[in-house]
Amino acid sequence: MDRLAKLPGDKTRLYCDGGGLYLCVDKRGGVGPDGQRRAGSASWMFRYMIDGNARTMGLGAYPTVGLAKARRKATEAREALSDGHDPLDLRNAARASKQLARATAMTFREAAEVYIASKQDEWKNAKHAEQWPSTLKAYAYPIIGDVSIADIDNAAVLRVLQQDVTATDGKSTERLWTAKPETASRLRGRLEAVLGWAIAGGRRTAENCARWDILKHQLPAKTKLPRGRVKHHAALPIDAMPEFMPRLREAEGMGARALEFAILTAARSGEVRGARWAEIDLKAKVWNVPGSRMKAGRDHRVPLSSAAVTLLQTLPRGEANDLVFLAPKGGMLSDTTLSAVLRRMKVDAVPHGIARSTFRDWGSERTNFPSEMLEMALAHTVSNKVEAAYRRGDLFEKRRALMDAWAAFIASPVSNSNVTDLAIARGLP
């Protein structure tokens, strides 16, 4: 390397390596903050001409950057020049890009919080909206909460889903995926949703490694696990309903009345507890449930049998609150109120099972009402897109005959509870 020049005072020298690469040696030392004398320094620079202007780009201090590395950097700069680019501008742009990436980078926790906030209006079920952040806080944040959303990989997702949790004996540990398959499955879906949001927003370029079509090769299916098999809502046998209903009508309290109405309408607990007088037309015998309170998000018309109308007419109707089933201290009945009624009656069933599952079993096994009509009565979403496209109406008047038949069945004499009226069985009004 040839010495090229020296600066005034003979303290700084430039050594040329060729091709625009220089080593600048400054022999001037000094006294540091600790009072110790410091030796001189040396650094690399690349000098070039572009558009008639001379420019100098620093390549790093020596010996941190050795000769070989300095030559490699100079070669890259010359290649940029040959492609018509200013190497100094390219480096400055790259640094700015990295700074911007660091400034806009999000951790998994931050991404999840933004995603949850954006979805709050969609989650009509308060319990569901509460479970979303609590599940992530309990199982995901301790492991990947502070990891960049862009860096979450398959191994990280598996660490979350296969983490050790306390077993039912309270002493040993088990893997989350096998110990709590339902919780773990929902957690996986929430991880997938957050990663999908990050990909859609350009904060992540890697694939969504929480998708089941990827993880199914590494984890057993939930339905194959002993604790992962679907447990249906406990319901009453069909023929037990006529004996149960008189007992329910004798039970006191607004919870008992709400459960009775849920059975007569085959409605969900939340729909009944949130029912308002403004939604009900007693004269037309119809209950118009707004989509904002329906699981499928669509308005739903419920034909009211004479028994349902009679029940509603016995309820107090206050002007201060429009709720049909008002809690003793005001406001909506809690989610556990209807379950408590069944516990007090010592009935081995849950509100959903007794109001909807038993109704569905009765409709399928004891009547000729079409399955499509039964699904409409339950306000189920049609999974078949072709069938959904051709389903234009809601079969309201025919469903009125269905609900009248159901009310007649559960009001039938106990001695004949195992015999269904022929007209009802044929699906006739």
From TrEMBL:
The keyword DNA-binding applies. InterPro entries: CB, DNA_brk_join_enz, Integrase-like_cat_sf, Integrase_catalytic, Integrase_DNA-bd_sf, Integrase_DNA_bind_dom, Integrase_recombinase_N, Phage_int_M. Keywords: DNA integration, DNA recombination, DNA-binding. GO terms for molecular function: DNA binding. Residues 231-404 form the Tyr recombinase domain. Pfam families: Arm-DNA-bind_3, Phage_int_M, Phage_integrase. It comes from the Bacteria. Residues 106-199 form the Core-binding (CB) domain. This is Integrase arm-type DNA-binding domain-containing protein. It comes from Sphingomonas brevis.
